[in-house]
Specification:
Layout: H1 5-20, E1 29-36, E2 41-45, E3 51-57, E4 65-70, E5 76-81, E6 86-93, E7 98-107, E8 116-121, E9 127-132, E10 138-142, E11 165-170, E12 176-180, E13 190-195, E14 202-209, E15 215-221, E16 224-229, E17 234-239, E18 257-262, E19 269-273, E20 282-286, E21 292-298, E22 307-314, H2 332-341, H3 364-373, H4 382-385, H5 391-411
Antiparallel strand pairs: 1-2, 1-22, 2-3, 4-5, 5-6, 6-7, 8-9, 9-10, 11-12, 12-13, 13-14, 15-16, 16-17, 18-19, 19-20, 20-21
Length: about 425
């Protein structure tokens, strides 16, 4: 009796299993830490938006937290405290998701802090950048809390009108990007600054514009720069290298958007919507082209009241290979994700899309990884869920790709 296409495909990927051996799993982000300025707390949410618990509540050292950052070695959590102008450091337990033992890392005008907003570490982890809404520029610190240089500001005459800074990010070419929150004295426009080559001053990447009024969250994804305008009520996209505005992207009528971060599961970006009143906001999820994907998390339930800042943190326990939705189970839900993205050869696929071997392609090799690690057999048969067009070709491609991957691992001195 002739073998069906599905069974033939299953046989071929079984052969591929023998050729591949063990495949490396893609790196996964973990949870989301959310700062709440109204409760002086930081909460922890899963990558799917479920409240996992309280990281810290500190009414002694914090007065409206607005910025978060983890130290390069993931042992310290830094929180920017807006009203009392200080940065507080906590011992952070990555596995437990808790913070303790607060110490004041920097404080006040002596440390160039005036209503600090965002915190960001340099690529090499040696310098902490802190933006200030209070007019002291972007402060710079060494890891021991000492100054790493004068604050970054615009040169004259822009420094007379653009001196309130908010969001921080890095350009694709490495320069620091800074959100200029609002111009003075008009208070009607914002801008985006970029550090010069010497990292001693800021120059405009995007000049003052009403559409950037209240420029708050900055996020660079590839060559795209996303910016939230708190008072402009929008989310915009620009070229992160040239500053050119992308007119095809438009998210408007947002009720005071502030924080901006890539979703921990890699599925789009998260926007903190403060809302028109305390407790009326939420965290929304959008895809990278601006389509609303839904609500990531809402206020209440023991969690945040007003999400003023958030950061994604590493997953201390990596999900098993083939776990595409990050729930630490390999089952039919993951198979559905792989099926929906089967054939994606864009080179930018992620584990959240079914790319288990992190090679940028969602193909038979990724199905193989799922099959080898599945713990719950879905009711549908394997043959019924495998897309049939070009199935045989993709199976052979998987075998060839695995062979090449094996050679790279064998001969590269940086692989183990």
């Amino acid at each position: 009796m002739p073998r069906s296409l599905g069974s033939t495909f299953a046989l071929l990927i079984a052969i591929a299993a023998l050729a591949c051996g063990n495949l490396l799993n893609a790196a996964h982000a973990g949870d989301l830490l959310v700062a709440d300025r109204l409760s002086n707390s930081v909460y922890r949410y899963s990558k799917s938006g479920a409240l996992l618990g309280t990281v810290l509540t500190d009414n002694v050292n914090l007065n409206q937290p607005t910025g978060l950052a983890l130290s390069p070695d993931l042992t310290k959590l830094y929180v920017a405290s807006f009203q009392n102008s200080q940065i507080v450091a906590y011992d952070y337990n990555l596995a437990a998701g808790t913070a303790s033992s607060p110490t004041v890392f920097a404080a006040g005008f002596a440390d160039n802090l005036a209503t600090p907003s965002s915190i960001l570490f340099s690529h090499d982890g040696s310098t902490m950048y802190v933006s200030n809404l209070g007019g002291t520029g972007v402060a710079r610190f060494n890891l021991d809390g000492t100054s790493a240089g004068p604050p970054l500001q615009f040169g004259a005459p822009l420094n007379q009108s653009l001196f309130q800074f908010s969001g921080l990010a890095f350009a694709p070419t490495g320069e620091l990007l800074v959100g200029a929150f609002q111009d003075f004295p008009a208070g009607a426009s914002g801008a985006i600054g970029r550090a010069n080559a010497a990292n001693t001053a800021l120059a405009p990447l995007i000049g003052t514009a009403m559409s950037l009024n209240g420029a708050s969250g900055l996020l660079v994804h590839g060559d795209d720069l996303y910016v939230t305008g708190m008072f402009a009520s929008n989310l915009q996209r620009f070229d992160a290298n040239t500053g050119a505005h992308d007119p095809t992207f438009s998210v408007t009528d947002l009720a005071f958007p502030q924080g901006l971060v890539e979703a921990p599961d890699g599925n789009g970006l998260l926007v903190g919507i403060l809302g028109v009143a305390n407790g009326a906001g939420h965290i929304a999820r959008y895809d990278y082209d601006g389509a609303l994907l839904g609500t990531f998390a809402s206020t209440g339930g023991g969690g945040f009241t007003e999400a003023t800042a958030f950061i994604a943190i590493p997953d201390p326990v990596a999900p098993p290979p083939g776990d595409f939705n990050g729930d630490h189970a390999v089952d039919g839900n993951d198979l559905a994700i792989w099926k929906a993205n089967f054939g994606n050869n864009s080179g930018s696929a992620t584990a959240a899309m079914g790319d288990a071997d992190a090679n940028g392609n969602v193909n038979g090799a990724d199905f193989l990884i799922w099959q080898r690690n599945v713990t719950t057999t879905p009711t549908a048969t394997v043959a019924s869920v495998i897309p049939e067009p070009n199935a045989l070709m993709l199976a052979f491609t998987a075998i060839a790709a695995c062979g090449l991957a094996t050679q790279r691992v064998k001969f590269s001195p940086n692989k183990s």
